[in-house]
Design goal:
By secondary structure, the protein is mainly beta. It has three helices and 21 strands.
Length: 344
């Protein structure tokens, strides 16, 4: 009887995990019902005590496993920990740099802030840049290597200068086609692991990093022949498994025979358009929704989080991971020059 009860409890936990995860941005500090409107921010004032339109602080760098983990973007060195890797991430994306960081596969994220609060004015309020590229625009417009990440924002309601208040998703063009409150746990590869090669030959290990999602579905982050000196699981993590939660976008893989490409999404995502378009990489705080999909008016924000929003293998391209190179505040005058796309 105890055995049957254990199985039943496990099935219930897996079934409910996808509905709401405590690690989902916004869930950990959801406001408790009371007589006050939890989304009344009118008494708060933005922090304009310093200047700077670019990233000045990285609060967290928590990539998921992936082909660039440890190897580069940024590179891990023996003795590195959360603090030192976060500092490396800051050095890569602070100010108006051209370096980048990789967030790994689904759920991996970076949390950062600008020189001051970002005011929610008419139009787009800030931009985040990646390293997306298109193929031949005349043949396949908006198709190439686009690795979409979602954006969350937060306001420093408790005024402790830390990103520990409720998070809000900036709902992009694919919001109503996305899976909300999804979570995945990744497991460190055992030391006695024996690789499982696949076909074609570039699939050097098809069972490198095991993952289990909140539906009970399991799969693997595969090793490819272009990244074989890397174990794909961030070496500085003390945990042997780590769970990430958030918004899961539909797969953007387009396949033709043995060729793979990653198409873009229209608007509202990081690393899906080349950096030559400010507007395509720009975000409006007015797109904010809470975990129930309710639109929330934020007069300003203090923190931004970017997270990889797909879980997929794209042939020779390997796993899909969002990259971030920089971010900047958009002034009200700049925003007036940026047109809206359908649905914005």
């Amino acid at each position: 009887m105890k055995y049957r009860l254990t199985i039943l409890l496990t099935m219930v936990l897996l079934a409910t995990a996808c509905v709401k995860s405590k690690d989902e941005p916004g869930n950990g500090n959801d406001p408790k019902p009371d007589n006050e409107d939890p989304y009344d921010f009118s008494a708060l004032q933005p922090d304009m005590s310093s200047d700077g339109k670019y990233i000045t602080t990285v609060f967290e760098y928590r990539p998921a496993p992936g082909q660039f983990a440890n190897e580069n973007y940024p590179a891990y060195q023996t003795g590195d920990n959360d603090n030192s890797m976060t500092q490396k991430a800051l050095q890569a994306i602070a100010d108006n740099t051209t370096e980048l960081i990789s967030l790994g596969v689904f759920g991996g994220y970076v949390t950062f802030g600008f020189g001051h609060s970002v005011i929610n004015h008419d139009g787009k309020d800030f931009a985040v840049f990646g390293n997306a590229l298109y193929g031949n625009k005349r043949v396949t417009p908006h198709l190439g290597s686009c690795e979409p990440g979602v954006v969350y924002v937060s306001i420093d309601k408790n005024k402790n200068h830390l990103p520990d208040d409720e998070w809000f998703l900036l709902a992009g063009s694919e919001y109503h086609r996305s899976r909300h409150n999804y979570s995945v746990t990744y497991y460190r590869t055992p030391s006695d692991h024996i690789p499982t090669p696949g076909i074609p030959a570039y699939r050097t290990d098809t069972t490198l990093i095991r993952w289990l999602d909140c539906d009970g579905v399991t799969g693997y982050v595969e090793q490819n022949s272009y990244h074989t000196t890397n174990n794909y699981y961030p070496n500085w993590y003390s945990e042997d498994h780590i769970t990430f939660s958030g918004e899961l976008l539909p797969s953007n893989i387009q396949r033709s025979g043995t060729s793979y490409a990653l198409h873009t999404y229209d608007w509202g995502y990081v690393d899906t358009h080349p950096n030559d378009s400010l507007n395509r990489n720009a975000f409006d705080i007015s797109w904010a929704v809470n975990t129930n999909g309710q639109k929330i008016h934020l007069p300003f924000i203090d923190f931004v989080r970017v997270a990889t929003a797909v879980l997929q293998q794209a042939g020779m391209m390997g796993d899909t991971s969002t990259e971030v190179t920089s971010a900047q505040i958009i002034t009200e005058d700049e925003a007036k020059t940026l047109p809206k796309y359908e649905g914005q």
